[in-house]
User: What shape does this take?
Amino acid sequence: MSDHNCPENTHWTLNLQHFGNTNIKYLEVSGACAVCGRKVEFRGPMGVSPEHPTASAIDGSEACLPFLFAGEIYDGKGVGYSVSVRGGN
Ligand SMILES: [Zn+2]
Assistant: This one.
């Protein structure tokens, strides 16, 4: 565990992604403490979906937020998947 309050000094990284035959774009967000390097772990369904935000399936260290610009209409077939994980402690 850390000896300081990580959320007060978090370094965020934003990355724009586009994949599949669709105009949906994805903003990928990751974050880590600027002091100790501890990664943010996002919660939520895991995977990638054009329908809703997800967390990366690998370790949850990346949030994937699908979006369109104002006025754009969802075009094409979305690709991706998501998995909900329930249970655990
Ligand atoms: Zn820290």
The chain has one domain: 6-71. Residues 42 and 89 are 16 Å apart (CA to CA). The chain has a mean pLDDT of 85. The first strand starts at residue 10 and ends at 17.
